[in-house]
Amino acid sequence: MVVSDSPREPIHSPPMCLSIPMQIVSIDGLTARCEAKGAQRDVSLFLLQDAPPRVGDFVSVSLGNAILRVSPEDARLAWELFDQILAEIGH
Question: What pTM, to 2 d.p., does this model score?
Answer without folding.
Answer: 0.80
